[in-house]
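Q: Entry one of two.
A:
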Amino acid sequence: MFRRPIELRVDRDSVAMGDDVVSHARSMTVPRGTLLSAALERSSPAIRSPGWSWVAVVDSEVAAVWSVDHGVQLLVEDRKFTRGPVDIHFRYFVQIDPAWLHRRLAEGARANRRELEVEYAPIAREKHRAELRRREREIDERLLSPECIEALRHYGAEITLHADIACDVIHEGETWAVRRADTMFQVFRGPGGPIASIRPHDLGESWLVTMIGSVVRVGTGQAALPEAVQLPGLELTRSAGRWVSHGATVVQVRSDHQADAARLAYGRSITEVRTLLEA
């Protein structure tokens, strides 16, 4: 007797802006008697990035965690599909460690992404910090040039971490975290997003030295920045609460002072910036 296959109606969350332009809903079939675990593996998301976690909800039941790293990790007893259709939705749980996520859900935690993100955040920060320390030990390349490091130390900064993609600087009790994001030079100060995203890298270094140097100038009773002729080539306009550039050079900063620092640093080497700051 002919046995009709089981229809799987599969969908997944979007992972970023633009990913939701096209629907991810699709339909597929599996032979009657296929195990739940096999069906989930076969219907798993096409986005396959290590460290990304997906929670599989099958007919409204939280059934498994799926990831490239570990495949299907069931939260319910494996079973054969004998009737359909079966609705499968893969919920995106960002870069929460898949093994940790599976353990917490198996322990009875709710499949609430926001709650689990908050719980996992300290673990994620520690893992990221450990990875940066590993890179600092094992990779010779450094993010900032020796000239930049010397200038920062000249202004009283302490370098607490320096790897190929990251440098942490403490100046007057405040941490400045410098990161490489693809081709962008990004600077973070405190929680939240970057206060500056700059390209090319050399301009980012000159801007950072200008910013740290301006703190020193204020501490000695001077104006934050010296009067200096702005070199041609950088145009900044205010847009949506930020200063942004136009053209090949990329500058995105938050405050008027940060924009003024970019104007002073543009087209100047670190040595030239220091000469102006210390005049």
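Q: Entry two of two.
A:
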Amino acid sequence: MFPRVPDQHKIDKPLVPNGLGVIYVLFTTVYLFLGYFLGIAESGNGVSVPLTLAVCILFGGFMGLLDDWMDLKWRYKAFMPLIAALPLVYLAREYALRTAISLPIIGIIDFGEAYYFLVIPLLVMVVTNTVNMLGGLNGLETICPAIILIGLMALSPLSHLLLMLGPLILWLALAAFNFKGKIFVGNSGSFAIGMTIASYAVIADLKSSLLISIIPYVFNSSLILLSVFLFGKKAAVTLDGNKLVSTHRRSLITLITYQRPMTERQVVIAVSLLIAAFVAIAVLTELLW
């Protein structure tokens, strides 16, 4: 049913079903529509939180499918999430969501109207693309976003938590199969979960927690982009037997495996623990700051 692609980080390169992220997109859309009809989350001023979230996730999945189909260039993928930010901007204005962001050391920054038309689109664009860029290993593009989403949900009110409870359970099931190398979620999954995280953080007003949680993602993307733009070189790991190793430091993965052979699972666990550490910092900051 799903197209099969070779697992490049296995010696025998087995063919693995790809694109199962569409299951998450379809399930989440139906789940959120049911949430709307059952009145799980508030709706007012003609704007529905579940439907807005569903639209954003649908667009993320569509963008991923488009990328799988057409192999979009990064200059197009970078800005496409801005379209998905439009319903979020409308919802934020109608609900008069807080326009200030509280950051440790820096303090509170109130962006005013610029929050709606500048900060929200930038958040969506950065989060969606950075989540998509940290992948390529079994479990990496599913486990790490799940950790961030769990952290955000832990800080959310019950109504918002229920919005993502079902989708999170399904995503964790996909992550388990992905970690075992049984499936790939593909770009449809990585873009959709990135859009989920960004949209949910805006709706639940957890912007500060999101910014702290995605620091490893931003660091990874910065390394990749600097290597490409300044040196014209891409990050890559080499398969040495059953272990991965790199001879350069052009991404978070190659930094971890630089002259240090590690199995694929060891790398994924290391990155996941790093993400979990920043999520823990974000949660503690939100609770104590």
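A: Comment on entry two: DSSP finds twelve helices and eight strands in the chain. The mean pLDDT is 92.
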